């Protein structure tokens, strides 16, 4: 009887030890499971926050795109209304020259340049439309009128307000000119690259500018020359010199031309 009881006690103790070992294992597994659950919950929370952040960014981006589109449409409507108003009132141009009626009849807003001369004018457009003129010097007329449709078109022109001097430059780099300030004007054009600005004034005055900001001139009014000298950090985009009388005390030049002889045919170039 005693032996049986001891055996039962031993079995119970062994059973207890096994249960305790299982409990330790289960506790360890439970902790691992809880850790995994917490990690998963934290990851899901982070993913949810990231998704919310992305959705917020997407919403803001859509709002910004919508705002930009509304501004673009508003600007488009504004330009459309402005264009309609311009069409209703016609081209905005005023001119006082010998060929005023001809100029106003042919001018439109697509014109790239209008040059007024002693007896007329010339207007330049792009390659498709070409140019229109009236009362221009004969040599310039022959130069332009003799060019075929397949040839390069004029893209820069200057007319003198008190003589038949002119300068014309074509899209292929070719140019032609006539001036009574022959030598200095010739040197300015021949000694450098293709100019971007050319202007002819009264009493043999002229101005030539290049894309890099360099320029040369002769006989410019002192006020204009002072303005050019005080703005050497800028480049001239366009220049036109009127035919108003210039007193001798206001004349100045960077490249003087002292030839006071009456212009003759051999001075043309």
What does this structure look like?
- It is a single chain.
- By secondary structure, the protein is α+β, with helices and mostly antiparallel strands.
- The protein has 2 domains: 1-90; 100-267, no CATH class.
- The protein has helices at 2-89, 100-106, 138-145, 182-190, 222-229; strands spanning 113-116, 121-124, 131-134, 154-159, 166-170, 175-178, 197-200, 206-209, 215-218, 220-221, 251-252.
- The strands form 4 sheets. The chain has a 3-stranded antiparallel beta sheet with strand order 1-2-3, covered by helices on one side. It has a 3-stranded antiparallel beta sheet with strand order 4-5-6, with helices on one face. A 3-stranded antiparallel beta sheet has the order 7-8-9, with helices on one face.
- β8 and β9 (215-218) form a beta hairpin.
- 21% of the residues are buried.
- Residues 42-67, 259-269 have a biased composition (Basic and acidic residues).
- Residues 40-67, 246-269 are annotated as: Disordered.
Number of helices: 5
Low-confidence residue ranges: 245-269
Backbone shape = rod-shaped
Structural class: alpha+beta
Per DSSP, what share of the residues sits in E-state strands of 2 or more residues?
15-25%
Task: Summarize this structure briefly.
The chain has 269 residues and is α+β, with helices and mostly antiparallel strands. It has helices spanning 2-89, 100-106, 138-145, 182-190, 222-229; strands at 113-116, 121-124, 131-134, 154-159, 166-170, 175-178, 197-200, 206-209, 215-218, 220-221, 251-252. It has 5 helices and 11 strands; from the N terminus they run ααβββαβββαββββαβ.
């Amino acid at each position: 009887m005693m032996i049986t009881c001891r055996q039962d006690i031993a079995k119970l103790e062994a059973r207890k030890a096994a249960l305790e070992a299982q409990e330790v294992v289960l506790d360890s597994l439970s902790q691992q499971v809880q850790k995994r659950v917490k990690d998963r919950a934290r990851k899901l929370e982070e993913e949810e926050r990231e998704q919310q952040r992305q959705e917020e960014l997407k919403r803001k981006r859509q709002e910004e795109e919508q705002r930009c589109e509304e501004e673009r449409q508003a600007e488009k409507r504004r330009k459309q209304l402005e264009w309609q108003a311009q069409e209703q009132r016609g081209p905005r141009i005023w001119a006082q020259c010998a060929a005023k009626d001809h100029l106003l009849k042919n001018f439109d807003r697509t014109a790239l340049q209008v040059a007024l001369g002693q007896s007329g004018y010339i207007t330049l457009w792009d390659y498709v439309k070409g140019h229109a003129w009236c009362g221009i010097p004969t040599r310039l007329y022959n130069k332009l009128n003799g060019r075929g449709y397949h040839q390069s078109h004029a893209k820069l022109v200057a007319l003198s307000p008190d003589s038949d001097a002119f300068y014309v430059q074509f899209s292929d780099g070719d140019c032609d000119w006539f001036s009574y300030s022959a030598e200095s004007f010739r040197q300015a054009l021949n000694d450098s690259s293709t100019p971007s600005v050319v202007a002819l004034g009264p009493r043999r005055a002229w101005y030539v500018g290049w894309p890099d900001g360099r320029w040369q001139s002769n006989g410019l009014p002192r006020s204009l020359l002072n303005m050019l000298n005080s703005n050497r950090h800028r480049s001239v985009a366009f220049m036109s010199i009127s035919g108003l009388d210039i007193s001798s005390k206001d004349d100045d030049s960077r490249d003087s031309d002292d030839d006071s002889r009456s212009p003759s045919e051999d001075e043309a170039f």
